[in-house]
Amino acid sequence: MTMRILQRFAVPLIGIFVIASVWEIGTTRGWVNTNSVPTLHETVARTYELLVNSEFYEYLGGTLQAWAVGLAWAVVLAIPLGIVFGLNYWAYSFIRLPLEAIRPVPPVVILPLALLIIGGGLRFQATLIFQGAFWPLLITVIYAIRSTDAVSLDTARSFRFGLLRTVAFVRLPAAAPLIGSGLRLAAATAFGVTLVTEILGGASGIGTQLMIAQSGGDATSVFAVTIIAGIVGLIISGAFGKIEKSFLSWQVAS
Amino acid sequence: MHRLDLENSPSIPARSVRILWASVLPVTLVLAYQWWSSSNQDPFFPTIPVMFDEFTQAWIGEGFTQNVLPSLTNLALGYLSGLILGVLGGIALGRIRFLRRASEPVVGFILTIPAIALLPLFLIFLGIGQQLQIGIIVFSVFFIVLVMTTYAVVGIESVLLDVCNIYRIHGLTRLTRVLFPAVIPQVLSAARITLSISVLVMVVSEMIGASNGIGATILLAQQSFDYGQMWAGMLLLAVLGISLNLLFTIGERTLLISTGHEVPSRKRIS
Asked: Structural domain boundaries of chain B?
């Protein structure tokens, strides 16, 4: 029993410890240039400094605001549209070709155009984040709604369920797990695109902080802000993982 | 797998009708854009013939060797080495439990950092140049493939490994004849995800830290208000994304068939 617990927690700690000591020893001994890789203790100290600095939260707030606005638009539009297009074969095949063409196109494609037309700022960010998250989510929702088990649909029909009740009680619960994982992916994509808009578009946020630190040659801050971006990513994926799990529980055992 | 619902298409219409119906929207969109752009004369939105002209000027001939070829070379080098390293690492982590557990927290954390956020860090570490483009693509491909391959190896049925033991299939033979083929479906889905990520990373990294390449050319065009060339770049990215995806689908099919796996149905759209 103790052996189990030891393995469960000690081994990951060993991993972290090994990486941390290689980093610290490597940089303090001068095996790598500290201008490009700062020492571990400096990085940790800088991360802490940023996390207790209220000014930094303004930047973080800017990033999260843009992320939330863009993602919210994508979710609010993609889910109802996905349901409509998923329900109707003709509607789906009407938009299918353009949709399939848009899917593999990287979301930065419209960045130069959006930058010229909208300029920087929140609207530019929200537009880019929206179109980065919207298309994959729409495709996932359409697929999830279309792939409802045929037997459940037949059952619903023999109970004379109308369209609304079929959607609400059969299709949506069945589609929920897939939609949940689509949401998680959309949230992560949206966060990535938010950083792109800040790095390339200059909108204020942690991405700009990264670029400012980089152009000033401040490696410690670059590492610290990158770590914070990772923590934010972790929180986002954790939160959306919870949502995904709660969607899973709608699934009746089949 | 899900049974596909064909309820809404009680009698599947003739193939020609379906094709005609599916092409209504794309054709309308193209025609509407052409009509709108030629009547508006907005410099932001050039007409389609102008776009194609700019496209040939920017990317065919000299533009191809100077800007498209280096980008594609970096993409191919970075993507393939990230893929190979990821698969090998994933097999090692999947087979050796200690390594897997020890690396779990660190790998998990790196995975949540968006690839783009790592660009400034790589800029400081590698400086501007080809090594930056390749390095960041390798990095962002590697970790995703690593994790998905690890899961795939852990998920290999124990019967398969028992059979290996009974027939004394060990070492390289086991690796190439049993482990590789068993994890191919998951590796392919990781490869598909990372392909689009690496195109994105390539473009953004060229926009920040390169003097030539597709991304650098597009950004330069935008900053110098050369809308035609900017559109040519956007068009190229779209064409690149679509054709790489198409190539991948063909390769995926061939590989799955040749290793005896089920090919995902054509209806699958996500």
From this structure: 51-258
Domain boundaries, chain A: 1-32, 38-248
Are B270 and A143 inside 8 Å of each other by CB?
Answer: yes
Q: What is the pLDDT of residues A155-169, one digit of tens each?
A: 888 888 888 888 888
Query: pTM of the predicted model, to two decimals?
Result: 0.86
The CATH code for residues A38-248 is: 1.10.3720.10
ipTM score: 0.83
pLDDT band at A90 (very low <50, low <70, confident <90, very high): confident
Chain A neighbors of B29, CB-CB under 8 A = 98
Nearest Cβ partner for A87 among B8, B218, B241: B8
Q: Using one digit for the tens of pLDDT, what is the confidence trace for B241-270?
A: 889 988 998 999 898 888 878 776 554 443
Instruction: Name the minimum distance, in Å, from the CA of A207 to any CA of chain B.
Output: 7
8 Å CB contact between B90 and B152? yes
A18, A109, A149: residue with CB nearest B2: A149
| Burial profile A194-226: b = 16 or more Cβ within 10 angstroms, e = fewer | bbbbbbbbebbbbbbbbbebbeeebbbbbbbbb
* A12, A113, A151 member nearest B101 (Cβ): A12
Q: Which of these CATH numbers, 1.10.3720.10, 3.30.2400.10, 3.30.499.10, 2.40.50.100, describes B51-258? A: 1.10.3720.10
Residue A91: CB atoms within 10 Å: 15
